[in-house]
Amino acid sequence: xxxxxxxxxxxxxxxxxxxxxxxxxxxxxxxxxxxxxxxxxxxxxxxxxxxxxxxxxxxxxxxxxxxxxxxxxxxxxxxxxxxxxxxxxxxxxxxxxxxxxxxxxxxxxxxxxxxxxxxxxxxxxxxxxxxxxxxxxxxxxxxxxxxxxxxxxxxxxxxxxxxxxxxxxxxxxxxxxxxxxxxxxxxxxxxxxxxxxxxxxxxxxxxx
Length: 208
Prior knowledge:
The protein is an alpha/beta fold. 39% of the residues lie in helices and 17% in strands. The chain is built from six helices and seven strands. It has helices spanning 15-29, 51-55, 67-76, 93-107, 129-141, 168-190; strands at residues 2-7, 33-37, 79-87, 90-91, 117-124, 146-147, 155-157. Strands 1, 2, 3, 4, 5, 6 and 7 form a seven-stranded mixed β-sheet that branches. Helix 1 crosses helix 6 and helix 3 crosses helix 4. The longest helix is centred in the C-terminal third of the chain and has 23 residues, at 168-190.
């Protein structure tokens, strides 16, 4: 059993990374493996070429800054935690590039993310946390993932690296999210109840 996290911050060892370290300790204490992936600084956006969708390759035609490694890890994982700093009221640009490519390559054809356990966290200086948190949740919602929450919204406050650790409530929320995600992964691992049937979702563009 394994949970992977995507750190959408371009900073090394910043607040997002430190929050994920705290989450990881809870996940591993529960007996579930935990691994963090952080895309490089030169990750590029989705081109909407649909090569991944048309070929069913489950990988992006652009092989840059570890994105295909992230896609492969998410396909193999039992749970996925999305974490991003707030940049001007939304997810960081590099994180958006990764999510667009992950969801198209792994989720929009033969959905490989269906019924995986999902969770979200964001770090922020002051405002934009709810918008970013909802954006991360909405990404997983559209992929038919099983979203797990903590006992409050997943936003941890801090600007300079290390400040988030002083947000006692936010860090407690993050740690509880880790415990809840690990628990749900273990529940699904042990259940004998078959998953409901999937099926192709029709896509429309509303042009008449």
